[in-house]
Amino acid sequence: MKESHEQVENFPKEQVRSAIQAGISQAELQMNGNKVSYKYNHKISNKKKKGLYAMSSVAVAFGLLVASSYQSPALTSTLSQIPIIGSVFADSNSVSLKQAQKKGLTSQIGETQTVNGISVTLDEILYDQNGISLGYIIKSEKKLGEYYFGAGMDFTINGKSPDGSSGSYGEKVQSATTRTAIQEINISEDMPNSFELGLILHGKNGETWYFSNPVKKITDIKKVPIHHLQNVDGIALKVEDLSLSKTGMSIAYESTEKGEDFELSRAGDIEFRVIDQDGKEIASHSGGAEGQRVKDKLVFKSNKKFDPINSHVTELTVTPYLSLPTEGGGVEFGEKGESRDIGFKGGSLKPVKFKSFKVKIPK
Fold first, then answer.
1. What SS3 state is found at 353?
2. What per-residue confidence (pLDDT) applies to 95?
């Protein structure tokens, strides 16, 4: 799935500038049409959160520009290939990513772009029932500071920015000038089985790296309907289904709580503990939750990720619980696209106790 790059002598600079401006205008219109869009993620720190929210207005412009950027050196710096030994996924601590890489379920990309002495290699992509996982390698001529790449890559689906998403981004320092990164993307809206994934990464000093690749969801995903409902202390929880594949397991849910303040809401802090019929706990990898204000309620949606289960598992006991944050904050967008920093106010939140429920695993 490596891209071929053909140089174009007469690159249409003015058309690209117009496309960027049109994309930014379209993004502003989309933001204005969505009264409140709050992207909620426990796994990204305050500094990284601000980068994640700030990038949302760029996504549409990137979708218009990405096709041209791959045909000309005018928008990208010299392309090079970094010698890669092993795999970012294979070297990670994630059982799901290791298994996906071992079974050949990932898309091997290996494309490198170098800007301002910093080479970014998009190593591989996994698209499964949990969402999209990205692995990349970063090499720099000089030492890079912490949070140099904010919250990771912004993205588009077939050239458009999705209405809501959450996820996580983490880096592993290999040396003073080399690091690897894994980014997890969860999208709340229905996703096509295959699409063109556009990616844009911003550096602290204004650098920009662009990637565009077709991705396809893995096959043999088994979905188990659950439709479990419970209401505890004002939190309405609806667990919709459980999905299984060779790469892992996920639980899709929606939670609702009356209120207007995201930092004082507990409905976005739900996690699940899962134990099989033999008493073995299935390791959880959490994942963010995307929240919206709907009238007088706060509504959250997410897919919580877990390790793959063994073939002998016949039943799971699922226990929802609250993982209340000890720090947080973010940015909220208003009706006219204006932003407002949200400070952390969740230190006084009280835990609740949900009921466990069982899920039969069909063979």
1. coil
2. 87
